[in-house]
Hints:
Layout: E1 16-17, E2 21-25, E3 27-34, E4 38-46, E5 56-61, E6 66-81, E7 88-97, H1 102-115, E8 116-117, H2 119-134
Antiparallel strand pairs: 1-8, 2-3, 2-5, 3-4, 4-7, 5-6, 6-7
Amino acid sequence: MKKREDGRYEKFPRFTPCQEMYVFHNEVGRVLDISMNGVTFTYIADNRPPKDFPSEGMLFTTGGMYIHDIPFARISDHVHGCFFSDGYCIRERRIRFGALSPELVRKLEGFILENAHIPQRSYAARHLAYTPDYVTTGGATHCTPPARAEGGA
């Protein structure tokens, strides 16, 4: 994996959310990507640099899943873009998870599996979902298109 600016190597792949996923860490932000290593999110704030960061945070979804008391260590926090005339900006924060207990590891794995787009899982799900339509006993696959409704349109 690629070496980061802080000298640590990424150990885990990063995934994008497949549904609305949020972080609470001083502010509420929308998750851009997540891994077992950490999370990147955006949030709206004034353009003053943030000073203090709590040592723990929370991940949650609109579907009601959540994990709280996750140890957070800030890697970066910078202005992503200023689009508002009254001094508010969209900021991007990158968090590394601290030492996770076995229970938190289990919860985080489940949270990611349930709420993130994982390409390998998606491919397997698509393959299993469509296999019955294309299963053949011979060498050639025969697919019959659905019948069209008679009449105008």
